[in-house]
Design brief:
- It is globular and about 75 Å long.
- With about 650 residues, it is mostly beta strands.
- Strands 3-4-6-18-21-24-27-31-34-37-40-45-48 form a 13-stranded parallel beta sheet, covered by helices on one side.
- The relative contact order is 0.07.
- The protein has 3 domains: about 90 residues, no CATH class; about 120 residues, Golgi alpha-mannosidase II (Immunoglobulin-like, Sandwich), CATH 2.60.40.1180; about 400 residues, Single-stranded right-handed beta-helix, Pectin lyase-like (Pectate Lyase C-like), CATH 2.160.20.10.
């Protein structure tokens, strides 16, 4: 045990003075004091105090309880072996909240006198005044959501929120709307010089009988400067934050975020209730933030990012795994450039953008710009507007073994990328998978909805192999896609609706349908082989493929934490003539002239299935499952066994 000097009530540790890595473990507990030494028998009270003292190699263990603070690490580790680790004590429930409890709620009527008293009785409005001193320098009730590509739908929105027993309220545009019953749980606030007044409806409940809370802090865990590297955050519940809108052209802040750093591990956490992003792996901020929602503005930000450390050695290479991420209004995970070289695996992401107060071009469970050499694997993504949205500069990335369903619009959206990228062994069961890109390889997937292929004429960059050095900008006009060993289904509840039909009538570059026949309108024929088409899905012209009238009639069954896929398979699927897909088979993406290979430069061989089971090297089964049987089958698809 190292020596400790106590001077003027401040703990001063010799290792802090010397800056050396010691491998110490600090403890934090609700029974602690920040004047303690931080050891197990005399823990600190706040996580931030431990963060201020922690050096590379140290661990901060936090014990049972709710910690209402924003943790802003002043420093990180120096390598994977000398990182700073923040962890919940094993077997203990530790929550870090960006909210505070507010009390003193009284009934405060705001309705028009013409509203019947019966309505008021059913939807009583409650009122409280919060001293502005509680908020310090940041009052989310005064902080508007705004920025590039944000759409407020003609009204103001704020990063504030009110909660009752963990359930968040909708922000009304006028306080007079509250007693109408339009939203059973809603609030409206007015910020005065000394206090913020909040009116709210709680679906007939008395807030004084429960736990009413309000957002107070902008984030829960976020360094306030870039290049705070090699941090691990493990085992916490992180909730109730008010980060700003996170477009790709501005600083991307999340409930938890890496802030343009390298080598973070965010694992085994519950991350919930962010007004915008849950996790940010994204961009730093500068004087050009939110000045122009244009392609040119983003191109300019890419050039600036290169001069601000955007390269494999300095930024990215994060690991985000085994987290439960939910109830985030903008995105579950967001990142522009700072996400490159990272792995996002085994996360359960759901209930994203559920309130629908505002919208914009950055709403998805996973929304990445410049996901270079990334792995996005084995995630369960459901009940969101979009699943995975990879926008600009997707190069060297692999999306594999993901389960996507019940997403309102799209499971997967590839927008203006030149590749090479690989999409393999995924289950896509929502309405749509949309492809505005080129240089993609789609292998062993199940497409349960409509496929969309759009000829997009925008210019976007591509890079040298496995790095961020830009070669050139190029128009999206080639095509250059590959589809091998996929399973396409027909009308399983997904269809071309009236809006799509009108769009296709006025936009000849739009092609939507079940199967690869939609590529017949693309500038370049795709490479194709080994696909099977069920129940009306149509093949590409002259494609040698199995066509079957069998209706898959797939059903997802959620039983506790497990998800099962039940479907009907044609025996012909097991006899389809296929080949093992390799780098040699896929060739090179045409525009960047780069091979489809692993991120370390080794050859790619897709020799396992959705479950990680080895595939037949001579004749792998079409679709995501190797030898699943035929007829009616039931497979556990989450957790991926």
């Amino acid at each position: 045990m190292m020596n400790v000097l106590k001077i003027g009530g401040v703990v001063l540790m010799m290792a802090v003075l010397s800056g050396c890595a010691t491998g110490r473990e600090f403890h934090v507990a609700k029974t602690g004091l920040d004047v303690n030494d931080g050891f197990a028998k005399s823990p600190f009270l706040t996580i931030q105090h431990a963060a201020d003292l922690a050096q590379p190699g140290d661990t901060i263990t936090v014990h049972e309880g709710i910690y209402r603070e924003e943790v802003a690490p002043p420093r990180g580790g120096t390598s994977n072996d000398q990182r700073i680790t923040y962890q919940a004590a094993e077997g203990e429930n530790v929550e870090i909240r960006g909210s505070e409890v507010v009390t003193g709620w009284e009934k405060g009527w705001v309705q028009d006198p013409t509203v019947a008293k019966a309505m008021a009785d059913r939807h009583p409005v409650w009122k409280t005044e919060i001293p502005n001193a509680l908020f310090g320098d940041f009052n989310p009730f005064a902080d508007k959501v705004s920025g590039d590509w944000f759409d407020g739908k003609g009204r103001d929105h704020h990063t504030s929120c009110v909660y009752l027993d963990g359930e968040w309220l909708f922000e009304a545009s006028l306080k007079e709307e509250l007693p109408s019953g339009k939203w059973p749980m809603a609030y409206f606030a007015e910020v005065g010089e000394d206090a913020t007044t909040v009116w709210a409806t709680f679906d007939g409940n008395d807030p004084n009988d429960g736990l009413p809370e309000v957002n107070v802090r902008q984030t829960v865990f976020y360094p306030r400067k870039p290049f705070v590297n090699y941090i691990t955050v493990r085992g916490f519940t992180l909730c109730h934050a008010a980060p700003k809108w996170a477009p790709p052209t501005a600083e991307q802040m999340g409930l938890i975020g890496t802030h343009w750093s390298k080598g973070w591990i965010i694992e085994n956490n519950v991350i919930t209730h962010s007004i915008n992003a849950g996790i940010s792996l994204g961009k730093y901020g500068d004087e050009f933030d939110n000045l122009a929602p244009t392609a040119q503005a983003y191109l300019d930000s890419i050039d600036r990012a290169r001069s601000n450390g955007w390269n494999r050695a300095t930024v990215g290479s994060h690991i985000v795994r085994n987290n439960e991420i939910s109830w985030c209004e903008q995105a579950g995970i967001v990142g522009s450039m700072g996400c490159s070289f990272s792995e996002v695996t085994d996360n359960d992401i759901y209930h994203i953008h559920t309130q629908g107060r505002f919208t914009g071009a950055e709403m998805a469970s996973i929304k990445f710009h410049a996901p270079i050499d990334m792995l996005i694997a084995r995630n369960r993504i459901h009940d969101a507007p979009m699943g995975i949205w990879l926008d600009w500069m997707t190069q060297g990335t692999r999306v594999t073994q993901n389960l996507c369903y019940r997403n309102v619009e799209q499971d997967l959206f590839l927008e203006v990328n030149h590749g090479p990228f690989v999409i393999d062994n995924n289950i896509f069961l929502s309405r749509l998978v949309k492809h505005h890109s080129q240089g993609g390889a789609y292998v062993h997937n199940l497409f349960g909805g409509v496929l969309g292929a759009v000829t997009d004429r925008r210019h976007t960059p591509y890079f040298e192999e496995h790095n961020t050095v830009k070669v050139a900008d190029h128009e999206l006009n080639v095509g250059d896609d590959r589809f091998y060993n996929n399973m396409f289904t027909g009308n399983n509840g997904s269809h071309i609706d009236e809006g799509w039909a009108k769009g296709m009538a006025t936009h000849p570059e739009w092609h939507f349908g079940h199967g690869l026949w939609i590529y017949e309108g693309r500038p370049q024929a795709p490479q194709i082989g080994g696909n099977i088409y069920y129940d009306g899905a149509k093949s590409y012209k002259d494609e040698k493929a199995v066509m079957t009238a069998v209706k898959p009639d797939y059903k997802l069954i959620e039983e506790g934490d497990a998800v099962y896929l039940e479907m009907t398979l044609d025996p012909k699927q097991l006899k389809e003539e296929t080949q093992l897909v390799t780098s040699a088979m896929l060739g090179k993406a045409e525009v960047p002239n780069l091979a489809f290979e692993n991120s370390d430069g080794s050859p790619l061989v897709i020799d396992t299935d959705y479950f990680g089971k080895s595939r037949d090297p001579k004749n792998p089964t079409t679709g995501p499952f190797e030898n699943p049987g035929s007829g009616r089958v039931k497979l556990q698809v989450w957790p991926n066994p």
